[in-house]
Structure formats: C-alpha cells, structure tokens
Amino acid sequence: FKTGVTPNCSNYTWTLVADVESPLFNGEPLSATDVRIYNNMAYVTYHRQGDIYAGGIEVIDITDPEHPTIKSYMQFDGVDINSLAIDNFDLETDRRVYLAGSSFKKGAVLRQVNANDGILQPSLLDISLSDYYSDGEISASANGIALSDYYIYMTSGNTVGGTFQLDRQNLDILSHEEYSSAKGIALNG
Predict the structure, then answer these.
(1) Residues in Cβ contact with 188 at an 8 Å cutoff, skipping those fewer than 6 apart
(2) How many CB atoms neighbour CB 87 within 10 A?
(3) 160-167 long-range contacts, Cβ below 8 Å, gap at least 24?
(4) Cα 100–160–128 angle (5° rounding)?
C-alpha cells in the first residue's frame, strides 16, 4: 500500500490512505465500485466486470492509516455490488449495511448484511426491486443508494429502472418512479 500521497486536484486536496489489493473471484480480480468510511472503518464494495455476476464487500480498519487491516470480507456468487450505504442508527455490534446490486436471477436488488464490530455476519436479506413491477419486467441493476432518517432511496438503470423509496425499518418498497438509465442518487437535507 501507499501512504502520504497527496495529489492536488483543482480546489480539493486528496490523501491516499491505502492501496489495497482487490479480492479475487475464481482467480480473477474484482473491481472496486464504492467506498464509505464510518467510525474508522472503510467499507469497500466490488463487482466482476463482464458477463459473470460476482461481487463482495470488504471492511478495512483504518484506525492506523499507516497499517490498515482487513477485518472482514464477504463474497457473493451471482450478485454484483455497485454501491453501499451504512446505517448510522445501529450499534457498532449490529450495524446494518445496505448494498445496491445486480443479481443474475433477480435483477436489481437491495442486499442487507450486518456487521458486528466490523465483522460481516453470514445472514443476508435480499429485496428484489423488480418485484414491484406488476408487468413482470426486470430492472437489471441497482446502481445507487442513499439513506435519510426514515427511508432508503435507490436507483436502478438501463431500460427498466428509475428511483425507489423503501422504508428504512422494514424494507418495504413504498414508491417508485420509472425511467431509464438511473445511476446515482444524492439527498438534499
């Protein structure tokens, strides 16, 4: 890994904390898709480029930026992970992590995993966004995710997609708007 590299990008200063090797799926490297830092933990998501669906999430302890430590890794066969959001209401011993992904079988999914002090737990919960379409259409890929106090907002893209609003407590899909090529999401307020 590299430390102390600080490139100057216009009016912003970026500091590289660590350079971490990508995990492998069947001997092929996964590509990092998103990173969130919460309480000295970096949560990094991955997907497999190409036609094979595979991904994962890695939790890296960056308490000591000179010596980051991989605390936990979970790999997913059949599901790409494109983005994540970390629940800030939970205790560190039971933190929910929400993943926006693309399943070979289900299309766009919200996948919930739990972390106990940075250790990912084996239980998973999947919500298929395509289940909301009454005409049987499949929304191929969930691309973006953001949390408000009460809701989870997600985007799914390409030809059958749009934005989705889910209840943060029970993960029910409350509403959605359909349009194509929805990629990212940002909240205001």
Answers:
(1) none
(2) 17
(3) 160/130, 160/133, 161/108, 164/129, 164/132, 166/110, 166/127
(4) 40
How many C-beta atoms lie closer than 10 Å to residue 10's C-beta? 5
Cβ neighbours for 176, distance < 8 A, ≥ 6 positions apart? 129, 132, 162, 163, 164, 165
Backbone angles phi, psi at 163, to 5 degrees: -115, 150
Amino acid identity for residue 183 in this structure: K
The sign of the CA dihedral 107, 108, 112, 115 is positive
On whether the CB atoms of residues 156 and 139 are closer than 8 A, the answer is yes
Distance CA 177, CA 124 (A): 27
What pLDDT, on the 0 to 100 scale, is given for residue 9? 63
Instruction: For residue 122, give Cα distances in angstroms to 100, 164, 175.
Output: 18, 26, 29
Q: How confident is the model at residue 161 (pLDDT cuts 50, 70, 90)?
A: confident
pLDDT value for 45: 97
